[in-house]
Structures are given as C-alpha cells and as structure tokens.
Design goal:
- It is a single chain.
- The protein is an alpha/beta fold and 335 residues long.
- It has a single domain, classed as Alpha-Beta Barrel (TIM Barrel).
- It has 11 helices and 9 strands.
- It has helices at 20-36, 58-67, 86-99, 116-122, 133-143, 172-181, 196-206, 230-248, 268-277, 286-300, 314-333, and strands at residues 5-10, 41-44, 73-80, 104-109, 165-169, 185-187, 218-226, 281-284, 304-308.
- It has an 8-stranded parallel barrel, surrounded by 9 helices.
- Strand 6, helix 7 and strand 7 (218-226) form a beta-alpha-beta unit.
- Helix 8 (230-248) packs across helix 9.
- The termini are close together.
- The model has no long low-confidence stretch (mean pLDDT 96).
C-alpha cells in the first residue's frame, strides 16, 4: 500500500481579539509550520462577504504565502470558478506559477463561496454561471495548455504552463465531473461529510485517464484537533464546534477561545445540525488520533488527507502541525 500524503487547508480565520491582518499572519505561520513538518501542500479557500475570513482575494494570499515559504505546494481549495472568467484565473495563476515554478495548483469549486445576494454581485446578476462549470474548467485548461498558441484569445502568463487542476466537491455531481475529466478529486468532508463514501466510489468507478492524471487521486479534507491529552483536545475542539454553531445560526463571530462545553449544549436542534456537519472530525491525543485516522484511511483509502486547523491558542495551533505529521508518519510506517 502506498503512503497517504497529508496537507493543510487554511481559511485565514480571524480570531477573537485580532483582525484581518492578524489572520493573514497566522496563515503564513500555518504554511511555514506545514512546510517544516513535511506537509504536501497548503490550500487557501475563496469566501466572500464574511467579516472574519481573510481569503476573499485568494490568489493574492497564495502569492503572499508562497513568497514566505520555500518548497511547499500552494494553491486554492478552492477558486470558485463561476465567480470568475477562466481567462482571468489563467492569468492570475499563470503569474503565480511564473513566480513560483512547480509549486502552484488550482482547486476549482462550483459553489459561490458566499450568500446568494453576494453571488449576484460577484456574477453581475448572472447566477446561471454555475451551470457552465464544466465548460469553464475546460476553457481554463485550454488557456493553460500548449495547444492554445493559435487561438485568438490567449493567457499571458499562463499559456503552456499546464498548472495542475483539481475538482473540489461535496456531492456526487463533482465526483462525476472529476472522473470524466480525469482530474484529481478533493472532497470537503470537513463540513459536508454526508456524501463522502458515495462520491469517492463514483469517482473511482468512472475515472478516465487524462494527460494530467493516469489513475484516480482522492484527497479528503477533515477537521483534526490534536492535544497533549484527550481532555485538552476536547476542550480545544469547542472553538471549532462553536464556529459551526455560529454559521448555522447566522451569528458570525471571530474564532473564539475554548469553552467548557459547546455553546449550543442542550439545544437539540442545533446539536443535531452541528453534528451533521462535523461527523468527519477527529479529536484526541496522538494515540487516539493515530488509531482513529488509521481506521479512516483503511476504510476510504484516500491518497491524501487535508487537515483544517481551528485551534484558538497559537502555540497549540502550531504544535498541532507537528502532531499531525507524526500521526501520518506512524500510519505510513505501520503499512
């Protein structure tokens, strides 16, 4: 069995008592820690109209992080392609690849990354762009290819760079598309785990080899909250659970310090809603996480697991990268 790779999803989340600049500084620290401990890649996610997430100008933040690291791959998890003209993304990421050759990749999503009203502002009142997602992916691929040199519209920088594309998803629709196009598939189990098993089965069963990828490649994103003890990890995880509660109740706030118990404890409706979003979340000390993540890897056979990090305390947050690295190294050694 081949080793499972491990990587980081960075949301550039503002923590209580800080600001957007502080969130960007924490994102850089995440990238530097990920690189130090052997993570494969770090991705930034596009969100809009969210006061406490600093990654709306995703390509700019990718550039900022790439400039302050040396080797780790940097990319989007994802660029919400219906918000953008494919030519613009080809030029932006062509610029990034020119500046940081061999390190850049583009994860592509269909969702707006925001609410409907903001999506209309982004898409100039044309919400139908999501229906052309496949066409836009193919157009972006063409702009980045060596085969576009005779076209009337070309991307500079971008043309000929063949930057790796990924399809992101949380449903079976994205699985079919990734399989059809022969692209690697990243599943967002960190907030939408319900269709995980079906989606990766569909992707593997229907995969068609392409110039970019000869065999299926599955990345699963999950929440991983390590601590020195199980009790400490459980307490640290309340920042994550409280954040999901705030999303569900539309009461957005900065990432807050841990609480003795989740702020929704005893409210059955919210407890159920949060649990449905975070069922692919791993919390515990190194031993507990090694056992649980090995079981998870054995069940789903991912090529890569991408971890989020929603730990409030910065020292513990950065140390989590070390612990996660040790866990996956142990899992790989046990094969």
């Amino acid at each position: 069995m081949k080793n499972v790779k491990f990587s980081t999803l960075e949301l550039a989340t503002v923590v209580k008592g800080s600001n957007l600049a502080g969130a960007m500084a924490r994102a850089v620290e995440s990238a530097q820690a990920s690189e130090k401990y052997g993570f494969e890649r770090i991705w930034l996610a596009e969100h809009h109209n969210m006061e406490y997430i600093a990654s709306s100008a995703t390509s700019l933040l990718i550039q900022h992080i790439a400039a302050q690291t040396d080797n780790i791959r940097v990319g989007s998890g994802g660029i919400m392609l219906p918000n953008h003209a494919p030519l613009v993304i080809a030029e932006q990421f062509g610029t990034l690849e020119t500046l940081f050759p061999g390190r850049v990749e583009i994860g592509l999503g269909r969702a707006p990354g925001t609410d409907q009203q903001t999506a209309m502002a982004l898409r100039r009142n044309n919400l139908n762009t999501s229906f052309y997602f496949k066409d836009d992916v193919l157009a972006l691929q063409q702009f980045l290819s060596n085969n576009n040199h005779t076209a009337k519209v070309r991307a500079f920088p971008g043309e000929g760079l063949e930057i790796p594309l990924w399809i992101l998803g949380s449903s079976t629709d994205s699985a079919y598309l990734a399989a059809e196009l022969g692209l690697p598939y990243a599943f967002a189990a960190h907030f939408a785990p319900a269709m995980l098993s079906n989606a990766i089965d569909i992707y593997r069963a229907n995969f068609k080899a392409s110039e970019q990828l000869q065999e299926p490649y599955v990345l699963i994103c999950a929440n991983i909250i390590p601590g020195e003890t199980n009790e400490e990890a459980q307490r640290l995880s309340t920042s994550l659970f409280n954040m999901f509660c705030e999303i569900i109740t539309n009461r957005r706030a900065p990432l807050s310090p841990p609480t003795d118990e989740p702020i929704y404890a005893g409210i059955a409706e919210i407890e159920q809603a949060v649990q449905s979003m975070v069922s692919c979340t791993f919390v515990g000390d190194k031993s507990t996480l090694t056992t649980e993540l090995k079981t998870f890897v054995d069940r789903y056979q991912p090529d890569e697991v991408m971890a989020t990090n929603y730990i409030f305390d910065n020292t513990k947050r950065l140390d989590a990268f070390r612990i996660i690295s040790e866990i996956f190294n142990d899992i790989n050694l046990s094969k």
